[in-house]
C-alpha cells in the first residue's frame, strides 16, 4: 500500500509539497509545468523557484526539520 495518490515522481513531489502546505509548513505553492523551474514555494523570506530535484530535497528537509524531533521523542 502507498500513501501517494499519484504514481509518477512528478506527481509525488507535487503531492508532498501540497501536504507541506496543508500542514502550514510552507505559506503557498504554485506549480507551473511549462516553466524551467515549475515549483514556486512561498516561505516567509519570499518565493523560491525550484526544479523537481530541488523541490524533492526541499520537501524532505522540511519534513525532517518539522517532525524529526517528534519522531525521536521517547515516551
Distance between the termini: 28 Å
Strand content: 15-25%
Indicate the low-confidence ranges by residue numbers.
none
Classification by helices and strands:
alpha+beta
Strand order of the largest sheet: 1-2-3
| Silhouette | globular
Count of strand segments: 3
**Spatial extent as radius of gyration:** 13 Å
Number of helices: 2
Mean pLDDT: 89
Q: In which range does the helix fraction lie?
A: 40-55%
Largest sheet: 3 strands, antiparallel
Spell the H/E element sequence: HEEEH
Architecture overview:
The protein is of the alpha+beta class and 75 residues long. 47% of the residues lie in helices and 19% in strands. The chain has a three-stranded antiparallel β-sheet with strand order 1-2-3. Helix 1 packs across helix 2. The mean pLDDT is 89.
Give a brief rundown of this model.
By secondary structure, the chain is an alpha+beta fold. It is built from two helices and three strands. The protein has a three-stranded antiparallel β-sheet.
Amino acid at each position: 500500500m502507498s500513501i501517494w495518490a499519484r504514481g509518477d515522481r512528478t506527481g509525488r513531489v507535487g503531492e508532498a509539497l501540497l501536504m507541506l502546505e496543508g500542514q502550514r509548513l510552507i505559506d503557498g505553492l504554485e506549480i507551473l509545468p511549462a516553466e524551467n523551474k515549475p515549483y514556486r514555494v512561498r516561505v516567509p523570506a519570499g518565493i523560491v523557484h525550484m526544479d523537481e530535484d530541488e523541490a524533492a530535497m526541499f520537501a524532505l528537509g522540511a519534513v525532517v526539520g518539522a517532525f524529526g524531533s517528534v519522531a525521536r521523542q521517547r515516551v
